[in-house]
């Protein structure tokens, strides 16, 4: 993968679910809503000065959101940051740059 380009879509891993769990409170605060289900399904990455994760998350039976999460370089000692999201997605909506 080239720096700046998006990777292929990959199945979510435990590491990606951990990132999703860490930004869930940020998302819930912005949406002013609590989600019982918050399961990472698939993701793409973009290498920048750190990594942008584009993650499809299931929030209920047939409702999905796309999250854009920035993870800084390890030496910066900062947790993941929710930098954007798209609501009203379906399981079949492709993950794209936003």
From TrEMBL:
It comes from Buteo japonicus. InterPro entries: Cystatin_dom (IPR000010), Cystatin_sf (IPR046350), Prot_inh_cystat_CS (IPR018073), Prot_inh_stefin (IPR001713). GO terms for cellular component: cytosol. This is Cystatin A. The keyword Cytoplasm applies. The keyword Kinase does not apply. GO terms for molecular function: cysteine-type endopeptidase inhibitor activity. It is found in: Cytoplasm. Belongs to the cystatin family. Keywords: Cytoplasm, Protease inhibitor, Thiol protease inhibitor. Its main location: cytoplasm.
